[in-house]
Design a protein that fits this description.
The structure is a homohexamer. Chain A has about 300 residues and is of the alpha+beta class. Chain A has two domains: about 100 residues, Nucleic acid-binding proteins (OB fold (Dihydrolipoamide Acetyltransferase, E2P)), CATH 2.40.50; about 190 residues. Chain A contains eleven helices and seven strands. Chains in contact: A-B, A-C, A-E, A-F, B-C, B-D, B-F, C-D, C-E, D-E, D-F, E-F. Chains A and F meet through α5, α10 and α11 of A and α5, α10 and α11 of F.
Chain lengths: ~300, ~300, ~300, ~300, ~300, ~300
Amino acid sequence: MKHWNTLKPGESFVAFFLIRRVESKTTSGGKSYLDIVMGDAVGEITARLWDSKQEDALRFTNNILVKVKGSIVEWQGKKQVKIDKIREAADTDGVSIQDFVPTAPHSPQDMYAELLAYMSRIENDKLRETVALLIEEAGESLLIHPAALQNHHALRSGLLYHTVTMLKAGEKLAQVYSFLDTDLLFAGTILHDLAKLDEIKANEIGIATEYSCQGQLLGHLVQGILKIEKAARTVGLDEETTLLLEHMLLSHHYEPEFGSPKRPMFPEAEILHYLDIMDARMFDMQKALSETEKGCFTDKLWTLDNRRLYKR
Amino acid sequence: MKHWNTLKPGESFVAFFLIRRVESKTTSGGKSYLDIVMGDAVGEITARLWDSKQEDALRFTNNILVKVKGSIVEWQGKKQVKIDKIREAADTDGVSIQDFVPTAPHSPQDMYAELLAYMSRIENDKLRETVALLIEEAGESLLIHPAALQNHHALRSGLLYHTVTMLKAGEKLAQVYSFLDTDLLFAGTILHDLAKLDEIKANEIGIATEYSCQGQLLGHLVQGILKIEKAARTVGLDEETTLLLEHMLLSHHYEPEFGSPKRPMFPEAEILHYLDIMDARMFDMQKALSETEKGCFTDKLWTLDNRRLYKR
Amino acid sequence: MKHWNTLKPGESFVAFFLIRRVESKTTSGGKSYLDIVMGDAVGEITARLWDSKQEDALRFTNNILVKVKGSIVEWQGKKQVKIDKIREAADTDGVSIQDFVPTAPHSPQDMYAELLAYMSRIENDKLRETVALLIEEAGESLLIHPAALQNHHALRSGLLYHTVTMLKAGEKLAQVYSFLDTDLLFAGTILHDLAKLDEIKANEIGIATEYSCQGQLLGHLVQGILKIEKAARTVGLDEETTLLLEHMLLSHHYEPEFGSPKRPMFPEAEILHYLDIMDARMFDMQKALSETEKGCFTDKLWTLDNRRLYKR
Amino acid sequence: MKHWNTLKPGESFVAFFLIRRVESKTTSGGKSYLDIVMGDAVGEITARLWDSKQEDALRFTNNILVKVKGSIVEWQGKKQVKIDKIREAADTDGVSIQDFVPTAPHSPQDMYAELLAYMSRIENDKLRETVALLIEEAGESLLIHPAALQNHHALRSGLLYHTVTMLKAGEKLAQVYSFLDTDLLFAGTILHDLAKLDEIKANEIGIATEYSCQGQLLGHLVQGILKIEKAARTVGLDEETTLLLEHMLLSHHYEPEFGSPKRPMFPEAEILHYLDIMDARMFDMQKALSETEKGCFTDKLWTLDNRRLYKR
Amino acid sequence: MKHWNTLKPGESFVAFFLIRRVESKTTSGGKSYLDIVMGDAVGEITARLWDSKQEDALRFTNNILVKVKGSIVEWQGKKQVKIDKIREAADTDGVSIQDFVPTAPHSPQDMYAELLAYMSRIENDKLRETVALLIEEAGESLLIHPAALQNHHALRSGLLYHTVTMLKAGEKLAQVYSFLDTDLLFAGTILHDLAKLDEIKANEIGIATEYSCQGQLLGHLVQGILKIEKAARTVGLDEETTLLLEHMLLSHHYEPEFGSPKRPMFPEAEILHYLDIMDARMFDMQKALSETEKGCFTDKLWTLDNRRLYKR
Amino acid sequence: MKHWNTLKPGESFVAFFLIRRVESKTTSGGKSYLDIVMGDAVGEITARLWDSKQEDALRFTNNILVKVKGSIVEWQGKKQVKIDKIREAADTDGVSIQDFVPTAPHSPQDMYAELLAYMSRIENDKLRETVALLIEEAGESLLIHPAALQNHHALRSGLLYHTVTMLKAGEKLAQVYSFLDTDLLFAGTILHDLAKLDEIKANEIGIATEYSCQGQLLGHLVQGILKIEKAARTVGLDEETTLLLEHMLLSHHYEPEFGSPKRPMFPEAEILHYLDIMDARMFDMQKALSETEKGCFTDKLWTLDNRRLYKR
């Protein structure tokens, strides 16, 4: 059976979808319809349920898994779904919601193991224990938390994926710039965005839903520093190392207007910033280009200062 | 006896001074001399000790109290002192170094009592106890600490003076904008710069000497938040109030480029910023104008974006 | 009878409204309807008049007082009015248009009296007479003029309310910063926005409608200076005081990009700016928070650089 | 006799100079000397009077015309004058101070006549009379006033030179952009900097000395508007034309950060700005290049954003 | 017969139009209609074809010339066309597509001749030959190419019109600033935007359609430099002149954020920038004002930093 | 024998130095002396030659190798050399100038071989040949050219060192971000600064002396593009690859204000920028920290936005 993504106008299908956003609208004739954005792990599409009833609007809401019978229609040059039948997925359907969420390309368990491996290479015992304590406190949610509401790495397990890729790149650069202290580099990388667990609320399937109250008022840089301070005091980490680690968090956004009141003041803090920004940029570029044809430009991308990218 | 500040070229005097800055220079003939900036609580003047010896340079250093016999000479349109005799002040001279440092215009004890009075008006018990704990920890140094290395309120007791004046102005504004919560306003004001005790090192006579290591790497906003977090946990202050107080500290510089990653998100945080900046500006303006003649402009003042002020 | 603001979907009512904005739209079936925003002093709501005729569009225009029979419906999560009957209010209805406009919380007569009281405390006779002449020329319109088209204090009597609140706050701050000259402070505050009477056109019920031609080409800072210059010459105010007053107007927006080619050059001009900005911010914050629930954040507020505020 | 400007180290000369700046210095041996910058209409040079006496410092001050006997010496790669004899010029010397000031390349009388000719071509009688009244009030000082303290056209008659050159260029451009109204263009150009007469104080030989008090507090844009307002009222110029003229003054610096709170809102105002900036740039560039050798770059020029210019 | 532009609601007409933009929309009843923006050389208007069929959407696309029978209706205060009949124009209709495109006000042949005349006045043979070679390579497309996708001079022959007007203004200014080298000025002006032929794709009727790949990746400044380098090498132009010409291209946008990595470093490069910006501004202003009534303001114009213009 | 760098005041030595900068000064007594900054590959120090003669100033100029007999003195807290004897180094001294210039830490031959090895891994034949042609044209000067006048990598062989380190880091990152095209990455890295050979003049010992004329007027980004265009045409490289390579050069400074009119539009261009900036920052940080004591801060570093760095 062909995936709905490859069908042409006129073709019909039956498939499961996760509802991402719904809006209840009305025609000028006064009839209600639902404008639904729905998708699976591969992509997403707009669908319309005409002549919807009030209970439809109540039932088909964000993050609900549904079974849809529909057909592809063309609307202003884009494919769209005209829904013929729709119902909530049932346990007996044998589908699982997490298969319908955009997800990091590696298993969270594997990535978690990689992170622990980097952590175990921190030689300063107290520093390693501080990191370990914080990772332990983070618990299960680290396995699925996304890294953002809608920017780079807004994927299930996006935070872990982002962190582990940075650890790999940091390890490589430390081979070239051999004066870098890998203890600080690994610890700082592992912890740099960990407080996003507290800054951004996510649901149990790894979709970010909103900023927390503390996240809005303090932000994950300061939240992370508060976590480090507490863990370091519990473990007994020396003051200088604690301070350097806190500075790495505080400075990793680099520019005041992006949230860092201090710029990096030693090489490991400097490199942490570049690891972070490069990984975000590579993710965004790869994603945008994967949806573009060879020899063409993408649309303007606001995450990249409205640049348009060229696909070789 | 006339104060040296009022003497004319040609007149002689004997007086005590605190040495503020010294530079050892040499004439083209190869002779050494000391270029000294020295002063008392009223003002400062440049002096020259010609034909100085190596031991002079070692003895007459920053923050040393000296007795000088000299005369006023004119040098490129400015008055200067030609030193005839100079020696370190002795215990028997009956002078005390703190009388020679620019100092807040009120007694530190009185200001401290005022601060405690405002503190006692905080109605939320846990909040008041949190503030009290931090004030207690600050100890004696709050009595003399300056508020800056060289900006506004770089005076002995400058930090206390700045804080108490802001409390008075805040109390007044809360009478006009009666929806303001004075608990938060008083607590936030008392604590807003308290971590300058940790950010800026000062000597025992209330002169700031340099930034501390932690001060450079984190800054007094984040340092203050760490202090509040710890004290609030000790006292058992509720999470919301702790968070609001921490946000007030984080946002009181208002602009990212002045160190606040978050702008104020409720009225008391907003007003705290204006109390701070108004008090700094009033201090700087009053000082600059006090040294200017009626109907004239001051020099360009870098603390005021290079404005020149007009003296009515 | 319950106010329409508290009714639930399905409930009907009869009430008077002031029409704020109307748009004539058409359904895809080609039928016309009116999309009306209407309100009273308490709030506003969107309403729809289906199957409207051409004369409806001509009759029901901005700032018309109407009597509406309708019912509450829910539209995309918001309450809306479905209009059953609508007619213009008649003299016999005994309603008065000014009761339907958002209005400052104090009576204009009381605020005017307060303003005159502050004016009478200006000790320099010529300065007081200059201010008095300008207030006299302003005439009745000062009683109802709003302070803006859509920013802070866009209320009937908003200009007066803003000015009087600033006078109160200025009086308070002058008690703390006692070197401030209250003559200049009171005169500058009374006059700082007076030329908004010329910059912004308002109708007879105190709603700003558009910028005047002179307002667009010069702006109320320069317009105000032209007024002061003329009044000062008529009264015979000395040149220095005239100049200081003109500078206060010119500099009160502080930053070039907000319209001030000169920054404040003496303390009274400096404080005038802070009185102005604080009062605007307190107004905007109080208004936004009054419409928000405890423990939540407001939407992004563009008058506050897109900040979201937290409601304690 | 060769001009001193062309002499080589070792050669002697006798010549008259205008003293531009003097500083009294002292050698380490305690001997006084004067460090003098002196020049004539062609150029300027540094000179030293060794072993100077107190009366020398009092006599040889800024803007004094002197007769000097001296020789050229080389000092750190630059030519300098060693003064052998110096005295104040006497009436019997037959030299006139204005021959020693950098001066516009055309006679002020000729330029003044050109300005009047452009003025006479303004067809709107009231507008022409308004301009004429202001030119009349300006009086003699317009003939010699410089356009700046130290920027472009800091020459005797610099203001007139700048204005007349702009009139010529404006006339030319109006031939290409024929929809431009030359009445407004000529009037606006003649008046655009006229208030520099009030903003900048100059001495009787056409050298700017300092900003006036009103100049500092208001600036020549607002000062010019006040002048126009008064003259227009005297003459009875219609309100629209007065307003357009005032707007041209207010907007001619174009950017808020350069002093214009409003950007140009009609073509004549827009072109006025470009006439102004082009004339300033052409003046500065021509001057800098005239002092540079072919194929080389000038030093960094701060009036041109630190650009270095290339001399063809 | 009256032009459709002057008809009132209710009046009918038959006329030819060029379709500029089309959008296929659907009513809530599910019926399709086309929303068409169509125009001729004089102006443009929105039209609706109700009950459109799929083949209509395929046939009536951008840049198609059509014959329309319709009537004027009023829609939300604006005139609109209700289409009764529409068909593609046929050869037998005797209309030519180029009469329906906004076009420069002078004949391209005349303007081309003017450009060649300016070119022939370049005295340096090699420089003239370099320019001639590039103009020759440009070929026919220079006659019709627009200067932009949607900014100033987005007209058929807009590039030529812009260039020739700048040449005229440059010639005039060189009469006032006689030290300017007209060889460089004419050559630089002729070539400054020539690479827009490569940067912007245009169709055969002179409407810009999109940026080329090379245009996006390099931009017309660098593209122009590559063209000059090649032509100069072919002709044998000396290195210094080649370099100066290349610098003029590189610097003519003046500010880094507008694409110039270097600011102008000699007077001809400086003036080239002002010729360019003045011509763009005069074009935009004249166009916006031509559509505005006397005594009123235009809407905010984004090409002019959101200024509103005043029409005298 | 101890290196002069480790001697204390009072100790004497004989050593060779390269003169870096000389200034001829005079004492107030009228006696000349030379103020010399001299150094070797390890460091530099200020020295004074008292009672210098005119021929001394002519003989001891920049980049002259000298033999000095002197002693260490202390001057305002810093060590300085008092020169007793000084003469130019002779052939018979057996010292070689290149041993006295700060130099990259690897042999130029080794680094050159590494660069060629990376080049040989470019798989696209035409691309590799284009790079090879440009490297061949660069010739010997690539072995010693510095990368800057006074910023990062202002060392002999600095350009080569910078390029090779970036190649290594780029190779590593391409292992993590495996979608990167190493052909483009290696080619772009090798060529990104190659035109500094033309932008910056350096002498035969690898010290940058000044910007070239073309360097000032175009800059190494545009200069590099001109070189690539020519080489690509010679070799017959396809247009798309040429264009991508040119874009990489044009965009590698990233921000318009740092000279890039276009931001990177594909991942290899993006990464090239980060390789460049990271290598510059690591170099500057390592250098600054190598001269600082543990636990202290460096001075403010202007190459790092005036940050002070912390030495662990």
